[in-house]
Amino acid sequence: MTTSEPLQEPVGQDAPPPPDAPAGPSALAPSPDHHVPGARTEAETSGVGRLAATVERLRGEIRAAQAAADGRALIELAKGVLIERLRCGPAVAARQLASLAQEAGVSQLELAADIVNQSSQDHLAEVASGFASRANGDPPAEQAAPSIGARLRTAESGALAGGDTQAAAQSLLAHALAPLGACSVAVWSAGSDASLALAGHAGFGPGEADRWCYVPPGVSTLARRALTERQPVHITDMSEEGLPSIGRAYHPRGGRIALPVGTGGRVNGVLEICWPGPLEPQPPQILRQIDALAELCAHTLESRPDRPAPPSTDTWAATPGLSELVELADGLYDPVLVLVPYMGPDGQLTDFRVHHVNSSFVDPAGRPRSAVHGALLLEAYPMAVGGSELFEKIERVYATGEPFRTRRMTLTALVGQVSLAAVADVSISRQGGCVLLIWRIEDEAARLAHLLQHAQRLGRIGGFEENLTTGEVTWNDQLFDLYGRPHDAPPVPLEALTSYAHADDAAAIRRFLRTVLHHRRSSSAAFRLERPDGVTRHMRVIAEPVLDADGRLLSVRGAYQDISSQHWTEVALAATRDQLAHTEQQAAESNRLTLQLQHAIMPPAQAPLSSPGLQIAVRYRPAESESMVGGDWYDAVTLPSKQIMLCVGDVAGHGIEAATSMVVLRNAMRGLAVTGAGPAQLLSWLNIVAHHLTAHVTATAVCGLYDPERHTLRWARAGHLPPVLLRGQKAAPLPTVGGILLGALADTDYEERELSLEPGDTLLMYTDGLVERRDESVQDSLARLLTTAGPPAADLEQQLDRLLTHSASDTDDDTCLIGVRVT
């Protein structure tokens, strides 16, 4: 049997009469009681006859409607065959069927019957045969389960009949996905900001759908993964994945498939299908069916009222918001390209047209704006699909709406056969149906600054600049990291550097500060930085002064470098050198013991002496060279009489002999002071010790006894520089009293003076290492000290640090300094 012939309605008991036969039952057989042709009986003209004719007419219409429905079903089955054979979607199959019928000159019903009959001996042929039998009046055969194509057509019909995405989701689950074992489905709509909104769902509870109605940009879900990757994502077992998704709590071990849906190179949303249990690999025909469902979802999402229509041609037509986007591009200082999608004949995205170029545009190849404006992107920049993957980034932003930003991307322009490369910061964003491409070409200054940042990072170097006029301190980010301080914390000025360093390195830092701030010369120093997090790093600071035309100090700039690894390497090398050079080791050990002895008795810094109504601070600066270790000493102690003894002295010479002699004199002075004698008598007894009980030691010293109750100071000196009194805004030395060197004569007397101190007075006692210079007299050195010392600072400790920092001495000698302030 072939159904290509015209189908006639079968003649039988229920068949309608021929067109020329009279209506009603009398037309079937003449009545024996009437012989006159054309005569009409009462029954014929009664209401019963007319009712019978109406029934027959309605039966005919029902049979015609059934035949038309069967014909549509046959066409749908033929479309399903084309979907299977051509591996296409429902819409493409419908167009192919209409095109083939038009070319063959037959109706779609006739062509559908031929396609079904010729598609092997499967169930579709039986359906076609059953339709032909019903058309001829044969009893209908029992219909089997619908095929894949039939399910697709049923799902499509239900989705199109519903008119919205929610109805489409329900139709997909009921007619196409449930037979595959799926339990739920979600259709996500992608926003312009790469967010996801639940446009339709089926199989989930209302509460679950409400919780997942919106997924903000940047939240990692299974649907977002399919959106960003722009390819199907298959999950065998959700318990093995860390991605959250709708309905996961109900089926924690269920399988999932998420497919991006869209047309014209733009992803409109995501179709997510859920199975109750683990999902096994699906055969190709099932995957093609799911792809067809995704295509159906894409058309459904495009028809939403809030969804702009996708471009279908070379998009030079007016696009909503395009004029505002052009105005925005013209207001930017960076080069901007406004790109519109360019579609191929098959409706797929193939390129982007440069719709607008702003006035700040700078072409990497040096071409004018007119050479780029209006051109296709791949024609203007064919290298965009090369190593930089610029075109792929633009295509992804247009498809998903998720912006892309990167620094130092290489842009390559092809001029003739020469490729010109430029490094730029690139920003790509989607605005409506267009793409905004912004780049900032890196100039030579930026490139050199970038190289400098890398060099500082690799060398662990941090730079600084300190304005001494305004007090402003500027650090770079690397220096904050070296100090272990947050970037919003205030920088540390140079004057406060000792507070962040190890106590044993304070002397080195003070020498460094004196060289830079006072001598105005470049200098460097190594010290141990104690960070707030408890980590100790070995650092080197290098600084140079910045002077104006008149030689005045304006600012200091320099750098810190972390030399911890270098320090430990040097320690290891020093140990090796010590083993190879025994002689040098002995010399170094001798110097080290001398220095340790001196530091043990004369530490560089000492806790302030507590006394009512009196502030006392002491400083000791050893010689820069270990071989120049001298005999400078100081002492500040409260006696049994409640008086306070203040002494400074200087033993002649350097080395271990000077250090040991200093210990003898210092201890002897302490022992003699408990007798209660005055300063002059103490110096006389100390002279006897120096002359008779030591190996011809000579020394200078100044000794004072302060009475806290009377606020008086009795003092005497033995060849030493007089103390300095700071009162008000002036600094002056105390009157000179007689007294020769200790140890010069066997027996000698010393003069004594008494001084009344007032609240706020500051008294300084020091050794010659603070002021002595080779190129000037002692009087000139003392005058410079008076200028530096006054006026007194608010804090006595800072006053002594300032004196050491700005000391003009150049003899590399030890320095002792005692400060006393009456409160």
Automatic annotation (TrEMBL):
Q: Which InterPro entries match?
A: ANTAR, Bact_Sigma-Reg, GAF, GAF-like_dom_sf, PAS, PAS-assoc_C, PAS-like_dom_sf, PAS_fold_3
Q: Please name one Pfam family that this protein belongs to.
A: PAS_3
Q: SMART domains given for it?
A: ANTAR, PP2C_SIG
One GO MF term on file is:
phosphatase activity
Question: Domain of life of the organism in this record?
Answer: Bacteria
Alphabetized UniProt keyword annotations: Hydrolase, Transcription, Transcription regulation
Q: Which organism is it from?
A: Streptomyces alboniger
Q: Which residues form the PAC domain?
A: 523-575
Name the PANTHER family for this protein: STAGE II SPORULATION PROTEIN E (PTHR43156:SF2), STAGE II SPORULATION PROTEIN E-RELATED (PTHR43156)
Keyword Transcription regulation in record: yes
Q: Which residues lie within the region annotated Disordered?
A: 1-48
Q: Where are the transmembrane segments?
A: none
Q: Does Hydrolase count among this protein's keywords?
A: yes
Name of this chain's protein: ANTAR domain-containing protein
Annotated ranges, domain ANTAR? 55-116
The major lineage groups are: Bacteria, Bacillati, Actinomycetota, Actinomycetes, Kitasatosporales
